[in-house]
Amino acid sequence: MELSAEKKRIVYTLAVGKPKFAECALGLGRSLKLIGDSTRRVVITDQLDFPWEKSFDEVIAPEDPLNWIFFSKLTALERTDADQVLFIDSDSLVFRRLDPIFTYCQGRGLCVQGERITAGDWYGSVEEACRRHGVPNLPQFNGGMIYYERTPECQSFIETCREYGRRAKELGFQRDDPLIPDEPCIALAMAQTGQGHLIPDEMDFQNSAVGLIGPLRLDVETNTCEFTCRRYDVRFVRPYIFHASRYIYFVKYWRQLRRLAELEEYEATHGFGHMSSAHKFARSIQKRILKLRGRL
């Protein structure tokens, strides 16, 4: 029997190396479960001593060398039966169901969110990169969210991105560590081939609160993620996906992971419709007040 289109959508993430990445990925899975998102979830991990089965539908082992790990984001079409893939970085929390992202991206091939830039510093001088590679601009984006789909055109474009990754040093893209960067390689492939789709940044499918202004209001229990930040412009944001990125070093993010774990434990230890003693007591008092007022 052929699977439905819904079941061939997946969320794809990585948790390779340090245990902290597994803790982050569990937070991602738990946040999706908490908001009732039904998209099948797949994690690539070498951290097997974690309760993946509660938050993920499939666990697969890494195959790529560590320096190529960013390009493991683009392997879901070979490693799963998915037709539509939404890669989300493990250090992310989701606050809105993902169907609108899949719907928007369907038929557009590989999609990333950002803006086209002609100046500044992004893996080196943008002006120099544009001049060197003969392109008018580069689509700047955060690789914490990448959509792609099972079409011959998209699969061919993904291979082009991989080829650029294999040539990253030659193309002038390097990091301060041995990891091969995916973002500038994908961006250059988009700029030179005209393939791929750049989701306007103001759609806020994803935001990492770069340039935060004021407080970061983040609370998984009340499904709150909102803030003002200065990215390409100053805007108030309520993203579908909060990519913690640099906020992985903030206590507030780890408190959210802890609360998600507590809610998962609560589900395991309390039955349907459970009412706490405090809640029952409050109901009893308020029932008496309502009777005295003639409401009951």
TrEMBL record:
It comes from the Bacteria. InterPro entries: Nucleotide-diphossugar_trans. This is Nucleotide-diphospho-sugar transferase domain-containing protein.
